[in-house]
Design brief:
alpha/beta; TIM Barrel; transmembrane helix; 11 helices; eight-stranded mixed beta barrel; disordered N terminus; elongated; Glyco_hydro_fam25_subgr; 2 domains; single chain; transmembrane; 11 strands
Length: 343
């Protein structure tokens, strides 16, 4: 820091008029002036001793200004954000839970993802895509509903599809809008046909049986009727089993052939195993080389629900029959017995 200093002597100055008058006048006036000057100097020395003049002649420095240290301002406390911490913890736990769930159900989740992708990209398919036939089996078939849209049955028949189950009804009121056409054209293409009913577990088995019977004109040579039991929205498993038994009994009595029970592996093991063993089982079990149930427990295996068959625009369920084609034909609705001839 720089400070200007003003000499103290500058504070005391003689007037310029007095100095100018000292150089003018006569000799007597000059002598008188000299005497007066001597007297004045004496008076001035009396009033201002030499020490005082020396003191006043020295510069008077201003006192040095020292900066006063200022304590730095204390930082403001950071606001607490408990909500953000809870949100981060919840997100972390959610990710951890999702990882554990995916690890346990990766196969099923991947299959659902593929099915969703197939549905979204269905418009870009040509209807000529083909899934290779499952090795180790000689009899292959499909099951269809209105979801598959228009089906070119002659084209399907040309690609080793030997049997087809066609959705006819669901619950107590729903009739598949494409059943009649699929039923007629599948037979015309030379494919062994059958019909199935999607069971609603909270509705009357008798009413559902009547709907199926009124919808499906099974004839000798057709495959047995099928009851699709897999819906999990039921209140009492015992009631569900009772209604299933009612449907099976009424339909068998009407057509004269034992129906086939369809279910997926998990549902069958939890709710149906040991209760309907007298009926043939059509088992859906995906992403496995073979069903885990013993071969004597099932006759048809639905090994994929995302197959492609030329003639069908989009994914379709693919099945194999455990046995020969002759064994499959042996399951068909029998011809009525000839009336005895009385002589």
């Amino acid at each position: 820091m720089t400070t200007s200093v003003t000499p103290c002597s500058s504070r005391m100055r003689w007037p310029d008029s007095s100095r100018a008058s000292a150089g003018r006048g006569t000799a007597a006036e000059k002598k008188r002036g000299n005497n007066d000057k001597v007297g004045t100097n004496r008076v001035a020395r009396a009033r201002n001793p030499p020490g005082l003049a020396l003191f006043l002649a020295k510069p008077c420095p201003m006192p040095r200004l020292r900066p006063v240290p200022v304590a730095p301002a204390a930082p403001l406390p950071r606001p607490r954000r408990p909500a953000a911490r809870w949100l981060a913890a919840a997100l972390l736990l959610g990710l951890l839970g999702a990882g554990v769930y995916y690890a346990r159900h990766a196969v099923q989740l991947n299959r659902y993802a593929r099915r969703t992708w197939a549905t979204l990209t269905r418009g870009g398919l040509t209807g000529r895509e083909k899934t290779p036939l499952l090795a180790g089996f000689s009899v292959h078939g499909i099951d269809v509903s209105a979801y598959q849209g228009h089906i070119d049955w002659p084209e399907v028949a040309r690609h080793a599809v030997q049997f087809a189950f066609i959705k006819a009804s669901e619950g107590v009121r729903l009739q598949d809008p494409r059943f009649a056409r699929n039923w007629r054209e599948a037979q015309a293409a030379g494919i062994c046909r059958g019909a199935y009913h999607y069971f609603s577990p909270n509705r009357s088995g008798a009413e559902q049986a009547r709907l199926f019977i009124s919808t499906v004109p099974l004839r000798p040579g057709d495959l047995p009727p099928v009851l699709d039991v897999e819906a999990t929205q039921f209140h009492d498993v015992a009631v569900m089993r009772r209604e299933v038994a009612t449907w099976l009994r009424l339909v068998e009595a009407h057509y004269g052939v034992r129906p086939i029970v369809y279910s997926n592996h998990g549902f069958y093991r939890r709710h149906l195993a040991g209760h309907f063993d007298e009926y043939p089982l059509w088992l859906a079990h995906y992403e496995v080389e073979r069903p885990t149930l013993p071969p004597g427990k099932w006759i048809i295996w639905q090994h994929s629900d995302e197959a492609y068959v030329p003639g069908i625009h989009g994914a379709v369920d693919f099945n194999v029959f455990q046995g020969s084609y002759a064994a499959l034909l042996a399951l068909r609705v029998p011809a009525p017995a000839a009336a005895p001839v009385h002589r």
